[in-house]
Specification:
It contains 8 helices and no strands. With 197 residues, the chain is an all-alpha fold.
């Protein structure tokens, strides 16, 4: 994926905003963590913070260096991690929007030129849109594959269970039939008293 090339003014504005990077990451982490039913109270906040920090790093490289190839590796990692846990797509999208949401207010506050602020926000929007759409598509594909694999496993286990039940039933029937064959017939039905008659 190709990044977005910023003008010198927009790049300087972004660097000024990122001077407060740790605070931005903390705020973005809270937004994602407490806004997701998949995360809040269920997963460690520290994990979300690490992922948000990675989103910031990927976004910074895409906007400052013009190369968002790091997103490819990150998208593969995070979708693989979330697919097995049946996370909502909305949680993934919130994470990929974390950088864009966090920098908007500081950009407006630091910008001395509205056009430069608009350029930077538009570039952040483009990066967010491309990466989040790619991540959402891949997550859905992987969730479908995971569900299909689990369904196939359940079906195999069900078939195996049915075969076991069938074998146990056949063994029980043959065992009962053998036991009946060994029992002497009741008197009057071919027994000793019936023979005297």
């Amino acid at each position: 994926m190709a990044g977005v090339l910023l003008s010198d003014g927009a790049r300087e504005l972004l660097l000024a905003v990122l001077a407060d990077r740790p605070a931005l990451i903390e705020k973005a982490t809270d937004t994602v963590y407490f806004g997701s039913p998949d995360l809040s109270g269920k997963r460690p906040r520290a994990v979300t913070r690490l992922l948000v920090d990675r989103i910031f790093t990927c976004s910074e490289n895409a906007l400052i260096r013009g190369d968002d190839s790091e997103f490819v590796t990150f998208i593969d990692h995070v979708t693989g991690m979330r697919a097995e846990r049946d996370f909502h797509v909305s949680t993934l999208l919130m994470g990929f929007r974390a950088f864009r949401s966090a920098v908007e207010a500081p950009i407006r506050a630091h910008a001395s030129d509205g056009w430069t602020a608009l350029e930077l926000l538009a570039a952040a929007d483009e990066i967010c849109a491309r990466t989040s759409q790619r991540a959402a598509d891949l997550l859905i594909d992987r969730q479908y594959a995971s569900i299909s694999a689990r369904l196939a496993r359940v079906e195999r286990e069900n078939c195996e269970l049915q075969e076991q039940v069938k074998r146990h039933r056949e063994i029980a029937i043959s065992t009962r039939a053998a036991a009946l064959a060994r029992e002497p017939p009741p008197e009057g039905e071919g027994g000793a008293r019936g023979a005297k008659r």
